[in-house]
Amino acid sequence: MTRRLAPACLVFVYACTEAPEDGARDAPTAIVGGQVAAPGEWPTAVSSGRCDGTLVHPRLVITAAHCLARGGPVSFSLGEARDRAVRTAAVDRCVGHPDHERRKGADVAYCLLREAVDDVPIVPVLSACEAFEYLAPGATAILVGFGAAGEDEPGGGLKRWVAVPVHGTQAEAREVLVGTRDKGACTGDSGGPAYLALPDGTWRVFGVSSRMAPSTDLDPAEPCAGKAIYTSIPAHLVWIEESSGIDLTPFEERCPRAARPP
């Protein structure tokens, strides 16, 4: 099982900082306690300058709905650093979830690209039945983002990744809680991905960085690391596919029938 997914890297340039008003802390923007990605690692994790995103199809990037608050990204950059993009991919249009302002767990959006990026290997999205079987407390998630490594740490803009535990879900499984006191997200990772390795060694992307969770057992509250809230992509696959017209679930038929959610 390897994290080095391809020799080419994608970076969507847009890391946002505004979060829904629900008592949570500011939107996450940096990876804490992890390491700088090597060339070619996590190539589908991208950044737009204000928010991050994930290339899940040659023509489609998933990001956070709150990243569209100021008009949305005009392009995404590909590479290991925001300001040293290997190349950029222009955006045709972005669409935020219609329930983002009204319901928890709807902080998700997609952006259609003007031209397909067809030379980067895509990590498939986690299907609903795979989430039901594998996205459980104790699973290990990989968070990827372009922010700084801590509240007062330099180096923002470099792609970093960190392995963290999954704690569970909330908001009727529309959100996933991840991270520890020393490892997790921070200001600047908004819209970025959370990945999960399946038992057969293949990878899926399941989450969109939304915001930091209110402080509970991780008191005192810190602006970086701690528990972070990621919007579940499987919970919104039907909307993304129907709204965008793009099929993102080619692996659905591989799920054991017993593992399918009711």
TrEMBL record:
Origin superkingdom: Bacteria
A GO MF term: hydrolase activity
Family matches, as InterPro entries: Peptidase_S1_PA, Peptidase_S1_PA_chymotrypsin, Peptidase_S1A, Trypsin_dom, TRYPSIN_HIS
Pfam families per record: Trypsin
Keywords: Disulfide bond, Hydrolase
SMART domains, per the entry: Tryp_SPc
Domain Peptidase S1: 31-245
The protein's Enzyme Commission number: 3.4.21.-
Top-level EC class: hydrolase
Listed name of the protein: Trypsin-like serine protease
